[in-house]
Every structure is written in structure tokens, then in C-alpha cells.
Specification:
Length: about 600
């Protein structure tokens, strides 16, 4: 089927005189996880991962993806005629280099400019001009061949109350306008749907696991406009929009209105799609969208709420751990049924809306695929042996959670125990860090990787990412990574109020996968002659599996940290458990 779809695309390319067509994983808003309407790359390639770019030439094709998906992509691309391009590997050419190597002068590269941001569009222009290759950015070929393409989502919105959000729409608009003045901007174009959701305290369910609505927005000094189908809006949001002088216009009207905005117009070229950006007539000011940082630094209300969300989530995952440990010997649990049981425990918590991403429930060698997704075809029975990696999270009215635990289901090898412990040591070293203000994730990443790097081991992904508030589970601009990856935008100075995951791991293809993940809150500690010292406060409270730990490999301060953490897990979680669960929890959180 994939070969037939590629052939249909190539027929359309031939009609238009196109020699290369680029299909990213994106939508009109540069969203990480996209709804089915925008699943064009998946439709054409069969690769279901969340990140990747497909390039189709007339006689060959390549798919670029990162280290999280190398194993999965290799399996899913087999027999399609699409070559896997492993990003970050020295032998892998960049997308422009690949295209330049196969096209001739005056050939044409095309894509739908609504799903390519301005920054990427410019880079393509610059690099392809070296060979006088033409760039066409207004051709959507996928819609021509995808006859049963799903409709754009149109879920009903709801107002996110201030008791959860902390600030009103008026207060947030005031903060954004204050930042706009620093750039002398008269208008600001916003396309990121998580930012619009934050400014307008607006939530919906257009994208699975990501409770926001597809929309555009412009902010001027005396008014703002949200571009969305007005019939979708709840009455409370309409009322508050009118009060804040926020107009409502049709979803596609932004492209016409962009030409009449007052200038200078502030845009973030890394997010605003190229079709929209090129529609603006007034001078533009290019900068990181100020909403990114405003949104990432959680206010006191958000912090208070998310702490409660994490307690509820900790109860759900701890109850799942108890259930798993006591039921696995019966031989009736599979990967799919296990993740279903975890979701049931979450759904029992007040104000649970949905999972915050598709659960990764991976047994033994499946866990070596960092973003494995169990299907009826891959589903396996869990046995009282080996390890089960479960990466999951919940969307609650109080906040967003993300946690990974690697559960020991029975006997494991000395090698598995060794790497389980070293990965845990990395997690602990980062969680207990104290650092001077001004540090970025780049400065701290070595703490997590250190125990693994000492043994010439690594994991081909970042160590952690920012987390939103009833929003995207991967939030810019903070993260942990040992090198700058421009498209990630996760290397900012760590500010108090940011929420950050800490998730080192070890992945041995064909054998096992291990990951330990908590969410951390960035906090200010003491200030003295040397400056402002910062640190982290744990938000996630679920036991780490003692059965995977080789205590002899740990330092005394690491043992003390883990004992203190487990004591806090017991104190915070046991009041919400049954007596049998409490007795078990006391045992699995006892000091090492």
C-alpha cells in the first residue's frame, strides 16, 4: 500500500514538474503531535513515530528521524522502498544535501508552505540556490491523493478557570503586550496552539493527549483576534473574550488579515508557517515568541495545582505497580492489558481528562525501542521474569504528568541489574543538583550521563524536556541535552517555576530497555556572594523498583537521596491506598 501511495504522489509530482517533495511531521501550527488530518508523513511512509521528515524523489525516498525511533523506523519502513536516514549519525546527509546530490540545476523542490516554518523555508531557499534549484512552497500534493483524508478536528472548547490557570485573559494579554513593547512591535502573530491556549485560558480536544484547539491569534495594543470556528466556542469563553476585547474570526481568515496588520509585526520564524509569514506586508520583527517563557515559568497557582496532580498520578501509578507485581505470575497480563489497567487507575482520580501521551508499555526487548507502542500484532504476555518499561502520563485539570518506571517482574540478569543501577544513579545525580543561576540543561546533562559515559555507554536522545500545564507534555524552551539541537529549542537558562523531566536510560537492541523518569520543579535556593543558587524539587512520587538495584554500585549520598525520596513517597501516597497496598508500599520504600 505504501508503494502505491508513493507512486500516486510521484504521478502528481510529474504533472507539476517537481523532482523532490518534502513531507514533514507537522501541521499549520508547528505542533509536535498532530491530529490525523495532518498525519501526511505517516500516510505516505507507514512510519508512526512522532518525529520524522519524508523526502520523495522520482526514483527513491528517504525518511529522517532521531535516535528514539531508529529501531521502530527500520521495522516499519522495511519493504516500502524508503531508506531510513538516522539523524545525528556522521554518515547521514542532511535533507538539503541529499536532495542536492540527486537533483539537477533548475529542478524543483516543493512542499506545502503551511507545514514548513519560515526558518526552515529560508534555509531551503539558501541551500538550494547554490545549484539554482527552484523552490515551490504552495503545493499540497498529499490532499490530491489522500481521498479519505480525515476532516479537521472541531471539538468543543472549554474555559480553563483561573483557579487552575492562575491569571485571567486580561492579565496574560497585559504580560504579552509588555513584552511586545520591548520589540517596539505593534502586532504579534501567534500560531502555536499551546501558546494560544495559555493566553486565552482555552482548552479543547482537537489532538489526542494535547487538550487544545487548532487556532491562530494576533495581538495588538488595543485588541486581539482569535481565528477559530466560532461555533466551537463555549459560552464562558465567548463572554470573557468580549470582556478582554478579543475578536473571533474564521480559522482561515488569518491569511487575508495578515496583509493588513499594523507594523512592526512580531513573529517567531521557528514557528510561524512560511505561507502565513510571507503574507505579512508590514516590516517584521523576528524573535523568540515571548509567550514561550511566560508559559514555561509556572505561577504559584499552577505550581500548587500541579503538585496535587502529581500526588493523584502517583497514587494511580503506585497502585498499578502493586497490581502488576501481584498479578504477573498468573500469566494473563499483556502489554496492552497492562497499559489499559494503568489508565483505569488514572481514570479513577478526580479531574482526570485523558493520558498526556500514548503510553509506552514495553516488555523485555520491546523496551529497547524508546518510543515503542504496543499493538495487537506486537502485544506479548508478561511473565514473572525480565523487566517492563512503562512511560506514561495524565492530563488533569490541575496539571500534566509524565513518569517512567522500569518494573522488575522476576529474575533479571546481572547485566540488566548493572545498567538499571547506573541509569538510576544518573537520574539521582541530576535530581539532587545544586547550580548557579544562568546554567542551562547543556551544563547539567553530564550529571545524568556521567555514570553511563564512564562505561562508554550512552542513550541517543535528550535527558529531559519541559512539561506544560494542562498542555503539551513536551514544552519549550527548557530541557536537558549534551549538545544544542536547534530544532528542539530546549537549551534556555533554567528559571524558577519551570517543570523539567529527568529520564536517563539504557537501551540494548534485541535485549532490554531501562528508563527512570521523574518530573522536577526548578526552584531558587540560597543567594550569597557567588550568586543565586538553584536546584530541583521532585514532583513525581512513585517507588523505584528496589529489585533492580545493586546497592554496591551506588555512592553513599545517592543511597541517602533515594532513601529520603522513598520516605517522601510513602508519606505522600500511603493515605490514599488500601491497607494491603500500604503494607506493600512500606516494604518497597524501606531504606536500602
Amino acid at each position: 500500500m505504501i508503494k502505491e501511495r508513493l507512486q500516486a504522489l510521484r504521478m502528481e509530482m510529474k504533472k507539476e514538474g517537481i523532482q523532490a517533495y518534502i513531507v514533514p511531521t507537522s501541521d499549520y501550527h508547528d505542533t509536535e503531535y498532530v491530529c490525523e488530518y495532518f498525519a501526511c508523513r505517516k500516510y505516505l511512509s507507514g512510519f508512526t513515530g512522532s518525529a520524522g521528515v519524508l523526502v520523495v524523489l522520482m526514483d527513491q525516498a528517504g525518511l529522517w528521524t532521531d535516535g528514539r525511533y531508529f529501531i521502530q523506523a527500520a521495522n516499519q519502513l522495511e519493504g516500502t522502498g524508503i531508506d531510513l536516514m538516522k539523524m545525528g549519525q556522521p554518515e547521514t546527509p542532511s535533507i538539503p544535501a541529499y536532495i542536492l546530490a540527486h537533483l539537477q540545476e533548475h529542478d524543483t523542490v516543493a512542499f506545502d508552505g503551511k507545514v514548513i516554518n519560515l526558518q526552515d523555508y529560508r534555509q531551503y531557499l539558501a541551500q538550494f540556490s547554490t545549484k539554482e534549484i527552484q523552490v515551490e512552497n504552495r503545493i499540497d500534493l498529499v490532499s490530491r491523493i489522500w481521498k479519505d483524508r480525515p476532516a479537521l478536528p472541531s471539538s468543543q472548547t472549554f474555559h480553563y478557570e483561573e483557579r487552575y490557570a492562575g491569571y485571567s485573559i486580561d492579565e496574560k494579554l497585559e504580560k504579552v503586550r509588555f513584552e511586545m513593547k520591548k520589540f517596539h512591535a505593534a502586532s504579534h502573530v501567534i500560531t502555536k496552539i499551546d501558546e494560544i491556549a495559555w493566553v486565552l485560558n482555552l482548552r479543547a480536544s482537537d489532538i489526542p493527549h494535547f487538550p487544545v484547539a487548532l487556532a491562530y491569534m494576533t495581538i495588538e495594543m488595543d485588541q486581539a483576534t482569535v481565528y477559530i470556528d466560532g461555533t466551537r466556542l463555549d459560552d464562558r469563553s465567548r463572554e470573557l473574550f468580549e470582556k478582554a476585547n478579543v475578536r473571533i474570526k474564521g480559522y482561515d481568515d488569518i491569511y487575508k488579515d495578515a496583509a493588513s496588520l499594523s507594523g512592526p509585526v512580531l513573529i517567531d520564524p521557528h514557528f510561524v508557517n512560511s505561507t502565513l509569514a510571507l503574507s505579512i506586508q508590514e516590516p517584521i520583527v523576528e524573535a523568540q515568541d515571548p509567550i514561550i517563557l511566560l508559559k514555561a515559568c509556572k505561577n504559584e497557582t499552577e505550581i500548587k495545582n500541579t503538585k496535587w496532580a502529581h500526588i493523584k498520578d502517583g497514587v494511580a501509578v503506585t497502585r498499578f505497580m502493586y497490581w502488576l507485581k501481584h498479578q504477573v505470575a498468573q500469566g494473563s497480563i499483556t502489554e496492552c492489558s497492562a497499559q489499559g489497567q494503568l489508565q483505569k487507575y488514572r481514570a479513577q482520580q478526580d479531574n482526570y481528562l485523558e493520558d498526556s501521551f500514548s503510553t509506552i508499555c514495553a516488555y523485555k526487548d520491546h523496551a529497547a525501542m524508546m518510543h515503542y507502542s504496543a499493538t495487537p500484532q506486537s502485544d506479548v504476555v508478561l511473565k514473572p521474569e525480565g523487566m517492563l518499561l512503562v512511560d506514561s502520563g495524565g492530563q488533569y485539570l490541575e496539571g500534566t504528568t509524565d513518569i517512567t518506571r522500569t518494573f522488575v517482574l522476576g529474575p533479571i540478569t546481572s547485566e540488566e541489574k548493572y545498567w538499571f543501577t547506573l541509569a538510576l544513579r544518573g537520574h539521582i545525580r541530576l535530581a539532587k543538583a545544586t547550580f548557579l543561576y544562568g546554567c542551562r540543561g547543556l551544563n547539567l546533562d553530564i550529571l545524568a550521563r556521567g555514570p553511563l559515559w564512564d562505561q562508554m555507554m550512552d542513550y541517543q536522545c535528550g535527558t529531559g524536556h519541559g512539561v506544560g500545564h494542562l498542555s503539551n507534555v513536551h514544552e519549550a524552551p527548557n530541557g536537558f541535552r549534551w549538545r544544542i539541537v536547534p530544532e528542539r529549542n530546549d537549551s534556555c537558562v533554567l528559571e524558577a517555576g519551570m517543570i523539567q523531566s529527568d529520564e536517563p536510560g539504557v537501551y540494548q537492541e534485541g535485549s532490554f530497555g531501562i528508563r527512570h523518569e521523574n518530573e522536577l520543579l526548578v526552584v531558587a535556593k540560597d543567594q550569597n556572594f557567588y550568586g543565586q543558587f538553584m536546584g530541583f524539587e521532585s514532583l513525581t512520587f512513585v517507588p523505584f523498583d528496589r529489585e533492580g538495584i545493586d546497592v554496591s554500585l551506588m555512592t553513599q549520598d545517592e543511597i541517602e537521596w533515594l532513601n529520603a525520596y522513598h520516605q517522601e513517597v510513602y508519606e505522600k501516597i500511603h493515605p490514599y491506598l488500601d491497607p494491603e497496598e500500604v503494607s506493600w508500599l512500606k516494604e518497597v520504600t524501606r531504606p536500602l
